[in-house]
Amino acid sequence: MKSIRIAIFFLLLLIVALLSLAGRCFYLQHFKSNHYIDISTKQQQKLVTQKPQRGEILDCRGRVLAASNKIHTIKAEPRIIEDLEATSTKLAPILRMSSREIYKIIAESQNPGFAKLKVGADLEQRIKARRIYGIGVDSDWQRHYPLGSLASHIVGFTSVDNQGLGGIELQCDKELGGLARQNIIFADARRRPIRLKQQNGTFSDGVGIILTVDATIQQFARAELIKQYESYEAESAVAIVVEPSTGAILAMVSLPDFDPNDIRSADPDNFRNRAITDQFEPGSILKPIVAAIAIDGGVVGTNEKIFCENGYYHGKGFGGITEYRNHRYGNMTVREILVKSSNIGMAKIGQRLGKGRLYKGLKLFGFGKETGVDLPGEVEGVLRPAREWTGYSVTRIPFGQEISVTAIQLIRAFCILANGGRSVRPFFIRAMVDNNGRVIKLKQQRRTGVGFVVEPEVAEWIVTEALVGVVDEGTGKRAKLEKWQVFGKTGTANIAKSNEKGYSDSDYVASFIAGAPAEDPAAVVLVSIRKPNKKLGRGYTGGAVASPVAARILEKTLTYLGVPPRVRKP
Known about the structure:
Elements: H1 2-31, H2 33-41, E1 45-50, E2 57-58, E3 64-76, H3 84-95, H4 99-107, E4 115-119, H5 123-130, E5 135-144, H6 152-155, H7 167-171, H8 173-177, E6 181-187, E7 193-200, E8 208-211, H9 215-231, E9 236-243, E10 248-255, H10 274-277, H11 287-296, E11 306-307, E12 312-315, E13 319-322, E14 331-332, H12 334-340, H13 343-364, H14 391-396, H15 407-418, E15 429-433, E16 439-442, H16 456-473, E17 487-496, E18 503-516, E19 523-530, H17 542-561
Parallel strand pairs: 2-8
Antiparallel strand pairs: 1-6, 2-3, 3-4, 3-5, 6-7, 8-15, 9-10, 9-19, 11-14, 12-13, 15-16, 17-18, 18-19
Helix pairs in contact: 3-4, 9-17, 11-13, 11-16, 12-16
């Protein structure tokens, strides 16, 4: 009987113990679970940045110039791998790499927490690799430029961490980049995520950007320019195509260029977009601008004759001035001065204008200041204040000396003339589109505008009379087209010596600006080639080197745009 009572006692004691244990387990599981999870996983919290997809850059017809693709990288964490040889052997068939190569990468990693094993892993490789202790997968966005070098200076490029470093990529880095978000997650002993703990920040992918550039016209410009650039063994070259009524840039080429898909192999000097960063004395290509300022200011009439001194003009305070190739001209109208590109005629027009009016007119045409084009790195050029001018300045600037300009400034000035004297601002960004396809920013095309730089009749006369004459009768004859009446102007500028005063006898900048149809221009093209090799014996002037290229670009562009033939009747 006594033994039965003892058994019952121990049984009751066991039941009490079991109930107590069950109660304790219930308490820990339902009331203290989060506390112990936090304690046990405190060392396993991971901060993971959720990176947005960078926005696309498209041309005006929706062709992709820049995009981001998801790329997966298989990685190792060397510090937690206990048996490196076994791990390498398991990974070899998955990654289709030798175990020796894998072993070496992990063993020689300078970062104990990361060793990159394979970039661009497929789904099967990622699934199998994750099952191996110490191996993980990172996902990131990789920038891709489908058209390679074609529009490299416009589009630009990004760093390895997807930050814009040039062109539109830099100009619109904030909009393209989107907004990242930081996630704090719990991970197990193998660094694998268990659950999300906290999210910080607002997440959104980058916006898409639609440019004014047309990849087809860009191809026309680059193909024609590169042939001449290589043929003449030039130092550099630039071509720009603009719709003059709006300022929309249809193409911009700067040579030498680079492939944004392979930045590491590129010469950093080639990253410079010479169309907006390189300044040079324009030479005779500036003459129509000064002539327009003079006619608009009433200091010279279109039918008035100016005596050009039979080839040599000199006087106190401005020295001596000659003509190109020692031409000897007598009395000429402004049209004839531009057609024959007379330096003396332009010097006399500059004297009539005087320092103040000439300076003010050039500023109105945009020289000596940035155009505001939506690309980084634009320079102002050099137009000294009128108070610093001498008698030499007022006679030399009218034919393109003592002033430095950029290619974008030059073509903008001619677009003003082609646009009936209206102010024009060149631009690249047509629209921005959010992730839902909504246009959040749009730049409309407008033919009409406010703010005349010169009177419409003055601009029209310069274009349709004087500059058409340059192509039909003067230095721009190589720019004639069969289907359209072309206007244009040559420029051949000596490059100043770097180590002494004066100009080089062998180094030139050969330029030409052309537009058509003259009565209603659909496109204006600038070509500027720096230091064509004079020793080749095939010419070095704007008429010989640059005008044929501009003509071919213009002809292909007008044909592509479907501009009806329009030739002035005799």
